[in-house]
Amino acid sequence: MTRNVVFLVHGVGRQGAGWATAPGGPVPVLTEAARGYGVLDGTALAERLDLVEVRYDDIFDTVLDRWGELADGLQGGAGVLPGGFERARRLLAEAGDDRNVFYRYGGDAVLYKAFGLVARAVRLRVMARLASTVATCRTAAKDAGEPEPRYAVVAHSLGTAVAHDSLHELAVNRWTDPDDPAGGLAAVPPGQRDAFAAAVARAADNPFAPSAGFRWNCVFMLANTSPLLHQIPEGPLASVVHPGGDGCCQTFFNVQHALDPVGRFPPFEMPADWERAGVGYRLKVDHIHAPNVHGFGHYLAHPEVHRHLFLRMVPGFGMPGYGEGAELAAAFPRDTVTPALAAEVRARLGVLAVSADLDGWEAALKAVAGLSDLAGAGAGPT
Description:
Mean pLDDT: 88
Strand content: 5-15%
Number of helices: 16
Low-confidence stretches: 377-382
Distance between the termini: 33 Å
Radius of gyration: 20 Å
Order of helices and strands: EHEHHHHHHEHHEHEHEHHHHH
Number of strands: 6
Strand order of the largest sheet: 2-1-3-4-5-6
Shape: globular
Helix content: 40-55%
């Protein structure tokens, strides 16, 4: 049976292969959430849905591995944000050259936003994963005489900007530099190069263009940073990453935790006509089940979030499951940590206000990273 496909795009921090299946990550969280729905009759989520991990953080590691060699070229290259080099160098110094700390403080976002060549490599990696997977699924469905699966993208934190830029470029056909159409393949993992190269070769007949009939069933942006960190000239309100009409998706969800400073400075201002048309949704949550309210899994654990995803992507869920999800959301405990810990998290984040720029981004991430000292808890998956 054809299974629908959900791509998971990570946020800041070093992730590693298998990040999505790590404890507290999106795969185990969604798998556990599915067990709570009677409408699914105890069927494992993996039997109904393919959750596909998208990873790009190792590209930033490659840049840092060659920082001394690349620094001069990056500093003087095209597409470099003024002050970007100095910001990256300062963050590295603050982190004591500890890359885990550098990334937790938003160093990877600085590399993405400030250096066009780095951002291009990241987007090519993500586009390759999307394109090669869709191509494989299409072929398998055709060979089996089954309908093509639905596709969704769920992105988090920095990953929302990366996903936005990648989805836009997939749709409008700017997959590579016109002057160097194959040059970006170095950023694509070897196992995905053939499928991506074949897709690029068909660029004149872009299979991902909305005009060709392709649309992502739904796009979920958790802690949406695309208003601040997008790299392509078209910002999130001018790109094709919007629902309906000539947009590249059927429905669009913007999800924000009330206490999470990431994604709030500046916030994504969803156009009212998206909501009026029933294709754009603003979801808000405020639970504290761990000190790190910014965590990918922490967002997805709330029934108000995952019931919308399951409705559109899990066969057999339907409106009965959606209604069941509403009941679960109403009964969902606001806090599962101790009252003292919840109060401390709210005290630290509830009054936080930062500037709507990269300085504010750093301050927000440092505030989130600072939660790791509460009750001996780790920062959790980002």
